[in-house]
Amino acid sequence: MTTENCIPYDGYAEDFEEAASDNAYNALYDRPAVLGLLGDVKGLSVLDAGCGPGLYARELVARGAEVTGFDQSGDMVALARRRLGPRATLVQHDLARPLDWIASGTYDAAIMTLVVHYVPDRVACLRELRRVLRPEGRLIVSTSHPTADWAMDGGSYFAEKFVEDQWSCGMLSRFWRQPLESWFTEFWEAGFLVERLREMRPAEGMAESHPEEYEKLSREPGFIAFRLAVRDDG
């Protein structure tokens, strides 16, 4: 996550971890969708870009993956290390900077969950992720749905800009909003093809545990996820 335009998670990491562990939007919406798009990871090397407190990494390790995760926030990395111990390699690193500590073609797959919209130069970031993937590699990216951003921010659906949202825990979220077409354009410019797109639906159990969120997310999307394949330009 980027130090300039991202949420300052240091100081809020434990609040985020507590909420994300079992809430509607993370535990019962984004995580199932992302892991479903990624598929079977047994025996694969997987990079978790913007790993947060290690909730996705824990699932990947449990499914048999060899996981490396990184995050800009030192507090987040500390929580991830506490959660995973020696079962994963966890590093503090800013997504806005080159992945110069990773050799090209290292990973079978990568995930970047609910973080790409914080990055100022998303194409450069995505190009670095493409570089560290093997030719047959896949990248799963999740972000807020463009229509959800439009409903929250108002104005033109086609607006492309950073907007701010105050979270209940006190964090000020500053994130990039743009129409769906622009996401596809950036993926293409970074060297990816969109292999699959998922407009998320609530997971089983949300209706009982979070009925208000279930009702809302059953009729209008909150997040969207993409499975990206490395484009063969040869």
Automatic annotation (TrEMBL):
Q: Does Transferase count among this protein's keywords?
A: yes
Residue spans making up a coiled coil are: none
Q: Which GO terms describe its molecular function?
A: S-adenosylmethionine-dependent methyltransferase activity
GO process annotations (BP): antibiotic biosynthetic process; methylation
Pfam families, per the entry: Methyltransf_11 (PF08241)
The residue ranges of the Methyltransferase type domain are 47-141
Which UniProt keywords are listed? Methyltransferase, Transferase
Which domain of life does the UniProt lineage start with?
Bacteria
Query: What protein name applies here?
Result: Class I SAM-dependent methyltransferase
Q: Which organism is it from?
A: Streptomyces genisteinicus
